[in-house]
Specification:
single chain; alpha/beta; Hypothetical Protein Mth938, Chain: A; five-stranded mixed sheet; 3 helices
């Protein structure tokens, strides 16, 4: 599925997702990723039902910090535990968890609006 919006050249755009991975700015990733406007990196999280604060450490290391972090939890959206949401907020991260497809589409829309957005994405088949 193509989810590409019009954005400035040089930014990391999610062009597609599915089949266990992502196509981001012309490159295929067959694993979970963290994507932000300037970079994309592998992500090795736990099961979304058992996320821990340390699964999100790469996100609070980003500079500048994102205004919002979209968490793509796979085929179906998952709620973050209130305690984890509070820990993430204490680290300066405002997170919104949803299914991966919605996270990819929302990331691209926010990117096209010039927002400082990051997405932590689990692949879907």
């Amino acid at each position: 599925m193509d989810v590409t919006p019009m954005v400035a050249e040089g930014l990391q755009v999610i062009a597609g997702y599915g089949d266990g991975g992502f196509t981001i700015t012309g490159e295929r990733y067959d694993h979970a990723v963290i994507v932000c406007p300037e970079s994309c990196q592998p992500w090795s999280p736990a099961d979304p039902a058992a996320f821990t604060l340390m699964d999100f450490e790469p996100l609070w290391q980003l500079s500048p910090p994102p205004d919002v972090v979209l968490i793509g939890c796979g085929q179906r959206g998952q709620m973050l535990a209130p305690s984890l949401r509070a820990e993430l907020r204490a680290k300066g991260l405002v997170c919104d968890a949803m299914d991966t497809g919605a996270a990819c589409r929302t990331y691209n829309v926010l990117l096209s609006e010039g927002r400082l957005v990051a997405a932590a994405l689990l692949p879907v088949d």
